[in-house]
User: What shape does this take?
Amino acid sequence: MSCQHYDLVEGGAQSFTVAMPKYTFGRETLSEAGVRAESNGMKTVALFTDPQLEQGPYVATVKESLKSRAIGVTVFSDIRIEPDDATVMEATGFLRGGRFDGVVSVGGGSVIDTAKAAMVYALYPAEFTDYFGSPIGAGKPIPGPLLPHLACPTTSGTGSECTSVSVIRINGLNTKFVMGSPYLLPQEALVDPTVCDTLPGNAIASTGFDLLCHAIECYTAKAYTRWPNIDNPIARTMLQGSNPWSDMAARKALEIAGEYLVRGVADADDREARDSLMFGASLAGMAFGNSGTHLPHAMSYGITHLMNDITTDGYQVDSPFIPHGISVVVNAPAIFRYLGGAAPQRHIEAAGFLGAEHLDAAGEEAGEVVSERIIELMKATGMPNGIQELGFNKESITSLAESSARQIRAINNAPRVASRQDMESIYDEALTYW
Ligand SMILES: [Fe+2]
Assistant: This one.
C-alpha cells in the first residue's frame, strides 16, 4: 500500500491501526437486534435508552426482536442529555445489580456513551477520573474487555456506535472529558435511518454539524506519523492522527454533509438526504474513532462548561443546554481561519469535498475558503451567528480559553497547536460572523 503521502518522521509512528465494529446499515434493520444479539452470545441484556425513546417505537422494535430470540431484557432509561458522572454511576449500579451478558444501546451519543462508561466501572471499579487522561485524570488504561455491545444510534451525528471513546461530563470539574480505549468499541453497530424520519429540522442541523466537524477535523488532523512512536503497539490509542483510513471515511462524510445537510434540515420527507446523513454520521465516526478530532471539539468544551443559564429552543431539556453540534460548529469558522495556513492543501481539499468554491486559494487563504463554506451552511440551516448569539461576550473569552486549554490531546492533534492566547483570539473572532 502506498501511504507515503504521509512523510515518515524520525521518532514518529510508522504504522496505524484501524478498529471497527461489525456494521449494518439500512431501513428497518432495528428488527435484526435479536438475531445479532444472539450471535454475540447474549441471553440476558441490559438495554440502555433515554426516557423519551423508551416510550417510542424504536425501543419497542428492539425489545420485540430480542424477545423473539428468547433474550431477557431489562431497560435502564434514566439517562440525561450530556451524561455526567452521576448518571454513569447510577447506570453502573444497574449493571452490577443484574446478571447481564450483553448490552444493547438505543439512543444518541448520550445513551451510547453512558452504556460504554457504565460497563467500565461495573467491571473494573475505580475512582471516577482514573480512566480519563491528563490533566484531570490518572490516565489509567481500561484493564480488559467489556460486555458485548450492540449500539443502535437514533441521531445522525454522534458516530459513537463506531468509536472507542466515551464523552462524559464530570460534575466536580463542571466540564466534559473523553475516555478512550480500544475496549470501548461496540462489537456491532446497527444503524437504521428510519429513526431520523420524525426528527425536527433543528436536531438534524445540530447533529449534522457534529458529523461535519468530526469529518473535517479528521481530514485536517496532524498526521499519525507526527505522533511519537510507541514501544507497545497494543497500547496505541485510536486517537492517532490522520491516516489513509480516516481520510477515506472523512472525505465521503464531508461530501455527504456538503450535499445533503441543507436538504435534510429543510425537508423531513427528503429520505435520500436524511438516510445519507445517517450513513455520513457513521462514516465520520469511523474516521474520528481512528484518528481523533481536534480544535473545534476542544473549544466546544469551554462553551458547554460555561453555558450557565443558556437554553436552546426546541429541546426537552430543563438544565443549561446547548446541543453538542452547535457548541462545536459555532467556533469552527474562526478556528479554520487560524489553522488553514498550517495545512493549506488539506483545507482546500476538505472545502472542495464540502462543495466550496474558490479552490485556487493558497497559504493562509485556505482556511478562509473552509470558513466561508461552513458559514454558508450555518446560515442556510439556522445556526447561531457566533457565540455572542449564544449569550457569551468579550468578558467570557478568558474563561472560555482557560477551560478549553485542558483538552490537551485534542489540541495537540491539530495541524497547529493553539496556545491559550491563540484560543482567546479565536473566541473573540467567533463572537459574530455575519
Ligand atoms: Fe462530536
The chain has a mean pLDDT of 93. The CA atoms of residues 6 and 302 lie 32 Å apart.
